Amino acid sequence: MHVVINHLRLRESVPDATVEAARKGMQLVVDAGALSARVAKVDDRHLILILEFATAADAERIAREIGGPWMRENIRPLLAGDTERSVAEVIASAEA
Is residue 67 part of a domain? Predict the structure, then answer.
């Protein structure tokens, strides 16, 4: 399993329209083959995007086909700077 984690720091408080776009965008990512997709709100100007994929190839494909275009349209115009993006192989996990 692989995860992609993006820290998104916004210039202003996250607009309601962006929250709705995030809900739709996360569903698009899952529909394209991700295992899960979440956006966590640290505070009004800091969001964390957490995506899980079965393989690194799935992560790359979905980023290219879905994530990149979605980010350019819905998030990039709101950013205070670059995203802090990490891609990692999961080496330990547990679920309830």
Answer: yes
pLDDT tens digits, residue range 62-87?
999 999 999 999 999 999 998 899 99
Cβ burial of 29 (10 Å; 0-12, 13-18, 19+) is buried
Q: In this structure, what DSSP letter does residue 77 have? A: G
Amino acid at 30: V
Q: Report, in angstroms and rounded to the nearest whole number, the Rg of the chain calculated over CA atoms.
A: 13
Please report whether residue 36 resides in a domain: yes
Q: What is the pTM of this model?
A: 0.90
Domain span at 16: 2-89
Cβ count near 33 (within 10 Å): 15
93 — alpha (psi -120 to 50), left (phi > 0) or beta?
beta
